[in-house]
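== Folding the chain ==

***
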Amino acid sequence: MPPERPSSAYPECVTRLIEEFGRLPGIGRRSAERLAFFVLKSNELDAMRLAQAVIDVKRRIRHCSTCWNLTDADPCPICRSEGRDASTVLVVEQPKDLISLEQTGMYRGVYHVLMGRLDPLEGVGADSLTLKDLVRRVSDPAANARGIAVREVILGMNPDMEGESTGLQVGAEMARLGVRVTRLARGLPAGGQIEYASKAVLADAIECRQEL
């Protein structure tokens, strides 16, 4: 007979809660136990608020049918806004990249979220991204935010190998459609030091140098 599994010192429902927390990225067994005991020590109202927040996210949040940003209304507020330049589309890999760019307050166009990037080793090809939706937006103004024709597509992918290959493919598709294609400037960050910069960063800094 196979040996019996050791019994848990926790009640069954607490064990399940620990196991569910343990499935979260970056959360190990001890962290999962701390989170479970935090919930146990919280009053019922606080615990129910946490549970309801999780339920609301799963039931109400979806992807914008225009840009694929996360939203609770379709189209999303950015695509609906009359104050945004819908003729300029900044392409990013993930919704979290969009959020980071929005927090700068410097960009007033709209976005397109690819929901990933090309990674052949992981089996992620162009069909796994929302590239076809971007092509449709550029080809047909009715598919873009507020029915406005796209004049410029800005590539905002991460400056690594996968991001570069994704940017090249997106850029080629956009150029084929006759739209202007640009990319976010790269180079030395403010406050950085040349001696600590990588070769790729220094190369971009030289290539993207500006007039004084």
